[in-house]
What does this fold into?
Amino acid sequence: MPRTRRALFTLPLAAACLLTACSASSAEGREEEERTPPLAAYFESFYGTEGSEAEQQAKYEEQNKRTEELVARCMSEQGFEYTPNTASSSVSFSSGEEWNPDSREWVSQYGYGMVKSPGSENAEEAPTEEYVDPNADLVASLSESEQVAYQEALSGPAPSEEDMAAMEDGSYEWDWTKNGCYGQAQHEVAGDDPTQADEFKGLMEEISTFYEGQSSWPGVAEADAAWSSCMSEAGHGGFAAQSDAQNSLNEELNKIYESMDPEGEVDQAAIDALGKEEVELALADLDCREETDYRAKAEDAAFEQEQRFVDDHKTELDALKAAAEQRS
It folds into this structure.
């Protein structure tokens, strides 16, 4: 089987969303309004996510087509046949309308949307189009040694033990020059990622450090403290920050999947039990967010801190934005 190829684009930096959505509400009854976090516009430029869903889809399809054509040319130059694979050139987007973690009805059904989420009930029933690799028959017709040579030409040599260890601990750095025709094609289409450039390394590290300290931001810490006290009174103590509640369930869910039997079967009874626990905890969380006006207070604090960061790093952020826009 061919090795899984690395995605064409780097996913955006997890910009640490303190809140479950980007609208604001408060006990004082202020109207909901969409507010763009101060760093959001920069992230959109860094990672090329501007535009409507249709525009992003069209852009993705065009880039995928160009990449596949370049891969075919590269493979031909190395003496191999390769049929451009555009069957998987779609990317799905969500309007977000089906995701409503501030609705009691929604939370009562899905909790945090971990064990069960909108659409998941019908996912197994929905017919799916079987994926067909246009190069599968060709690869199958090759000898074992020829298959190895083909795959190395296509996507580079298999990861070493050191590479695998680095992938596990998160220190692995992808090098397009070591990833065969795909690496070369992806680099030609997407260009160098400015967020990985030495010039902006310091800025990216500062952004990461900035978000790592979000729990101690003025206003956020106070909002978390009030929420935590409310949760304790509701019988769900032990959470210092609002995000800890969902994270605790995520850890339990991971443990269940990590303990799957050799056949890949998961303990469904444990999953179902966790699903009930999830709904109970999420409802208590929702109650305490509403009682303490958590989201509005935390959002205000986050916006203030992000704006301060933008003001203090505007020159560097603008330079990275310009580099990213030039790339695209």
The chain has 13 helices and no strands. The two ends are 33 Å apart (CA to CA). Residues 1-32 have pLDDT under 50 and may be disordered.
